[in-house]
Every structure is written in C-alpha cells, then in structure tokens.
Design brief:
By secondary structure, this protein is an alpha/beta fold. The protein contains twelve helices and ten strands.
Length: 321
C-alpha cells in the first residue's frame, strides 16, 4: 500500500481508503455484518488506514467503530459526516446555513456518531452537503473550531454535491477547510478542470468517491442487469441507463485494448494518476473486492497515452437526479 498526505493536514492516508456506505445495511442490499467486519479487517491487514462513513449510513458508524476498537493498536483514521438539519440532499441554492448546519445540530450529530461508534474522536468531520453560499455565514465554522479545540475532531471537510465540483471553490480558497470529498471518475472528469488544481494550491486534501460510478465502471453492468428489491441502484440505473453504461464501458475497453474485467482497476488507477488526489474510497463489501482494490496501490499510475485516451471518454450526466 502506498500513502499520500491529506492536503497539508499532516495525516498520511492510504491511497485506497474504505467507503463504508455499502456495509451499513441501508441503501445497498446484500451486506451482512459478519462479512462486512471481515472485509474491513482484511482492508486494514492490507494497509488501508482511512475509512469514510456517515451518520446517514445506517449501521455503518457502529460497525466501523467496532472494528477500530478491535484494532486498537493500529493507526486508523475515521471520517464521518453530519447530515443537513433540513434533510435535503443535495443542497439547493438559496438556503441559509442556519437551516442546514447550525452549531447545535453539528454538535449533536457528532456526539451521536461518537456514541454509535464507541469512539472518542473522529479524524475528519465532513458536512454531507455543501453550498459555497455559506462561506462567511452562520456559526458552523465557529462550532467546527470549538470541536477541534475540544479534541472531538481533528480535521474539517465537506462532501461536495453530486457533480458540482465548482460549488466548493470559494471554501477551498478561504482556508477554512482541510479536505473535500468529490465525485471524480473516468466519466465525470470535471474536478480536474478547477477543483483539483485549487486544492493542490491551497493544501486541501482530496477524497474521491464514486470512482467506480456506483458500479458502472466495474465492467459488470449490462443491459440486463437487475438489483435486489429495495436496493437504491434500481433508481440510479433505471430505464435504459444500464445499456448506456455497457456501451460506454465497451468503448473504453476497446480503446485501451483491455477486457471489461479490467475496467475497475483502470478506473481506480485513473483517479490515482492525479497527484492532487489524497485517497480514493471505493465501497467494498467482500474480501474479494478488498483484495482487488487494495492491489491497485502499487505505485503504477496510468501512462500519459492511456490518460489521453480516457480524456475522450468524459460523459457529463447525473444519474442521481
């Protein structure tokens, strides 16, 4: 496993982190706690030291806290998220930060998350939505500063609204944030235009989510793909979207001269080819996925020729809407 600095925070995090939404038994159908615990332990065995969870991920905080306590001798960095008080994802324009992240709500959420995980602090506390309209407004920054002083959190970050990477540029440039979490993948390459350079300039860490496009960049989504009843991916991949994804992935594989089975590895290497990226957090619910993804952190990014090919496969769309 290779490690990178999380911006200028002083934390050295594994290139492959652990995205823990899928193990929370909410949204994603099929996870079991026993298998999830084994998967997280295996990830830590392989050098993963950064785990991303959230208050809104069902049982995820509790499960992650259990594993972290069982690995008390290891340095494991845990990031969690505060949901917006108004419960609106993503944050639309025109909201006052007192509606979304008032200080009292932030503190209550942190305390609830600490109790759920049985932990005494979080290494990164993130707002689960963001709008640059909130810079310089409300009492959220004062509250974050107090939580740092109290030792409840080490760093502050935000999770950028889906496919809106420019909606955090003002915050990055303000110096008030330690990290941002953003969708960045072969299809959505927009963060490379302005956000990644800004983060590199201002010493802000970059946590990449959805590197595999919720499964679209695994080579396993076909026109006939279905998901279990109650699984949120039925909405994400509704209608003819699986067929669209299959065609796009086939084109990538053909242009690179690889098989569809190699798409997931290529997708992770694409993200790690950017020096501005600190860590990528694929969701991993099985030992097989953990082992395959962790193996990508071997110091071999994609070549310039491969990146040039992938630049032609940008696909700007929003399957969340």
């Amino acid at each position: 496993m290779h490690y990178r600095e999380l911006g200028s925070s002083g934390l050295s995090v594994s290139e492959i982190g652990y995205g823990a939404w899928g193990i929370g038994e909410s949204g994603w159908v099929g996870a079991t706690e026993d298998e999830s615990v084994r998967a997280v332990h295996r990830a830590l065995d392989l050098g993963v030291n950064f785990i991303d969870t959230a208050r809104g991920y069902g049982e995820s905080e509790r499960i992650i806290g259990r594993v972290v306590r069982e690995r008390s001798g290891d340095e494991v960095y845990v990031a969690t998220k505060v949901p917006p008080k108004n419960g609106v994802w993503p944050a639309p324009d025109g909201l006052d930060p007192r509606e979304t992240f008032p200080g009292e709500h932030i503190r209550e959420s942190v305390e609830t998350s600490l109790r759920a995980g049985g932990l005494d602090h979080f290494d990164v506390l993130q707002f689960h939505v963001w709008s640059d309209e909130w810079v310089g407004r409300g009492d959220w920054l004062e509250t974050v500063t107090e939580l740092k002083q109290q030792g409840k959190i080490r760093l502050f970050g935000v999770s950028v609204n889906d496919h809106q990477p420019d909606n955090v540029l003002a915050l990055v440039r303000s110096g008030a944030v330690d990290s941002v979490q953003v969708i960045y993948n072969i299809f959505d390459q927009a963060p490379a235009d302005a956000l990644l350079p800004a983060c590199a300039e201002h010493g802000v860490g970059v946590i990449v989510r959805v590197a595999l496009d919720e499964g679209g960049l695994t080579g396993r989504i076909t026109a006939d793909t279905t998901f279990p009843e109650g699984d949120w991916r039925n909405r994400y991949f509704r209608g003819d979207r699986p067929a669209q994804v299959e065609r796009r992935v086939a084109a990538i594989a053909a242009d690179l001269g690889i098989t569809p089975d190699g798409i997931a590895e290529t997708a992770l290497r694409f993200v790690l080819s950017s020096p501005a990226v600190s860590t990528v957090i694929p969701g991993m619910r099985t030992l097989r996925n953990v082992e395959r993804n962790a193996a990508v952190s071997d110091g071999h990014p994609l070549t310039a020729d491969q990146l040039a090919v992938l630049a032609g496969h940008r696909w700007q769309r929003n399957f969340y809407s």
